[in-house]
Amino acid sequence: MATQTQKKVTSKMNVRFGEHLHALRKAKELSLREMAELCSLDNSNISKIEHGKFDIQLSTIVELAKGLGVHPRELLDYDFE
Amino acid sequence: MATQTQKKVTSKMNVRFGEHLHALRKAKELSLREMAELCSLDNSNISKIEHGKFDIQLSTIVELAKGLGVHPRELLDYDFE
């Protein structure tokens, strides 16, 4: 069971990932709807991920990468500190 | 609900990730026990991940990176095709 501190660390991490995802999508000039059409995620879930609501799974990272047309490692290419 | 094909794709992806994780750990000359001591995962879970048993979450990817002393993007730096 995750402790309170672990939950806080995870949610900060999810928000940071969401910010990076949002920046990548904007750089590609894709709307949520356009990105959703390029992968198997719907636009409301992509929006929730951008707002740090989920501790997403590897399979979702791979789908997000497909939607953006980038290699999955790009989704983790930011400062984690 | 994931379809049968999505489940097959996810499990192949998890096995591939596990192989990459195993190679990274070997390159660092770390045993499962030594790696477990450097992060908040236990050695049996790391072993299961290496055998593709889980569709792991972002927080686990970050812990694995801590255990290996690498940036999280390294965990996804392999050929996904």
Molecular structure report:
2 copies of one chain form a homodimer. With 81 residues, the first copy, chain A, is an all-alpha fold. Helix content of chain A is 60%, strand content 0%. The radius of gyration of chain A is 13 Å and the shape is globular. The first copy, chain A, starts with a helix and ends in a 13-residue tail after the last helix. The mean pLDDT of chain A is 92. The interface between A and B is medium-sized, with 23 and 23 residues.
Task: Name the descriptors.
homodimer; 81 residues; mainly alpha; 434 Repressor (Amino-terminal Domain); 4 helices; 60% helix
Largest sheet of chain A: none
> Strand percentage of chain A, roughly?
under 5%
**Mean of residue pLDDT values of chain A:** 92
Shape verdict of chain A: globular
For the record, the CATH architecture of chain A stands as Orthogonal Bundle
Rg of chain A over CA atoms, rounded to whole Å, is: 13 Å
CATH superfamily of chain A: lambda repressor-like DNA-binding domains
Distance between the termini of chain A: 24 Å
Quote the CATH topology of chain A. Answer: 434 Repressor (Amino-terminal Domain)
Low-confidence stretches of chain A: none
* Name of the top-level CATH class of chain A: Mainly Alpha
Total count of domains of chain A: 1
What's the count of strands of chain A? 0
Oligomer: homodimer
The greatest inter-chain interface is formed by: A-B, 23 and 23 residues
Give the count of helical stretches of chain A: 4
N-to-C order of helices and strands of chain A: HHHH
SSE-based structural type of chain A: mainly alpha
Helix share, percent of chain A:
55-70%
